[in-house]
Amino acid sequence: MEQTYFFPPHVGMKLSELAQFLGAELADPKHADIVIRSVSPVNRAKAGDLCYVISKRSKDELVTCEASAILCSAALQSIIPAHVPVLVSKNAHAAFAMAGGLLYPTALRPQKMMSENALVSDRAAVDPTAKLEANVEVEPFAVIGARAEIGEGTRIGAGAIIGPDVKIGRNCTIAGGAKVLCALVGNNVIIHNGASIGQDGFGYAPGPRGMIKIVQIGRVILQDSVEIGANTTIDRGTMDDTVIGEGTKIDNLVQIGHNVRIGRHCAVVSQVGIAGSAVIGDGVQIGGHSGIRGHITIHDGAQIAAMSGVIADIPARERYAGIPARPANDFLREVASVLARSSGAKKTGEKND
Questions:
Q1: How many CB atoms lie within 10 A of CB 208?
Q2: Helix and strand counts by DSSP (H, E) for the chain
Q3: UDP-3-O-[3-hydroxymyristoyl] glucosamine N-acyltransferase non-repeat region domain: which residues (predicted)?
Q4: Which CATH architecture has domain 125-329?
Q5: Which residues are tagged catalytic?
Q6: Taking the model in full, what pTM does it have?
Q7: Which of 63, 135, 184, 327, CA to CA, is 20 to 30 A from 54?
Q8: What span, in angstroms and rounded, lies between the C-alpha atoms of 320 and 279?
Q9: Tell me: the pLDDT tens digits for 91-129?
Q10: What would the DSSP string read from start to end of 283-335?
């Protein structure tokens, strides 16, 4: 892929400076003045690029790699060709993420749509009772409701809707088309395009004449440094709160039901559905397209494989997979057994022919 103008390369920084920022070790000091301008995968790296390696599977690609430096662990340093400078890190994956953010800071958040000089566009609708701290940006066609409060350094994107009485902290980015209602939002929160926060939870009581709507009068609380992906929806609580814990990252197209409580530093991947009143502990990772039943608990540090169906509590720090979800090793043994029987049946059928 050729470099595009959406995210132009960095003006450049010396490898020694980059190593210091990352807390990495420059394997050969004579490479200290090499300049890094961009990040790249190993297979198409060129001069000025930084790559990273986290397994020996990249060994063949490294032979022809033209990167100006490669990040890796000490255990993998021996597979790096002599012609490529090396930065040694205890966590190469995390260090590479830090390097990318340093070289491309504008790619870390949704970008501003317009280049207007005014902080608050004259084409935005801001209720006179709303309170905006210094350096709050409001782009065209955004709507900020009555008594809303928005902290310093926050940007409200084009066409975004901030509902009445919503409170948003400092240095947040609410991208274009996002909607934030009935919510309290911490500092340094990112909400991507089209996300909907704080709409009705899905609650109805069957009656003799059909479904009777249950009022949803709770809130959504997004703690500091939460990131919400594009077109994700988070329902407000019925009578309590829906809570997303500090540092948790939620992908695009995720549905989180009313009264759900998600802990700190979790990762929830695209198309996950979490039903009402489920409790997710700290550090939980949930793979894409999984479904989580309501009123269950997934304890701290658990990992859920993609396309799993979770219908019961999951113990702390366990790995679960399958439908219904069970311990991952059990699931893999069952899959292996089914494949073996299928293969045996096929061979028998071929012989019978």
A1: 5
A2: 4, 39
A3: 33-99
A4: 3 Solenoid (2.160)
A5: 258
A6: 0.91
A7: 327
A8: 16
A9: 999 999 999 999 999 999 999 888 778 899 999 999 999
A10: T-EE-TT-EE-TT-EE-TT-EE-TT-EE-S-B-TT-EEETTTTEEHHHHHHHH
